[in-house]
Design brief:
Mean pLDDT: 90
Strand content: over 45%
Number of domains: 1
Oligomer: single chain
Strand order of the largest sheet: 4-3-2-1-5
Helix content: under 10%
Order of helices and strands: EEEEE
Length: 55
């Protein structure tokens, strides 16, 4: 199941798919939902948006 996040405190933030999360550091690997662009971010800086089952 794909889970989607965006950056907190950024109303123009892109929607990103969570690829992986490091349980120790909270570091996440993310991919832009619409383009092949990848991001790294800390889980605490992300806000849950939706998943495929919530549509």
């Amino acid at each position: 199941m794909k889970r989607y996040f965006k950056f907190k405190n950024n109303k123009h933030s892109v929607i990103m798919e969570l690829l992986s999360i490091d349980q120790l550091t909270g570091e996440c690997q993310l991919k832009n939902r619409d383009y092949p662009v990848y991001y790294q971010a800390l889980y605490k800086d992300l806000e849950y948006v939706e998943d495929e089952t919530s549509k």
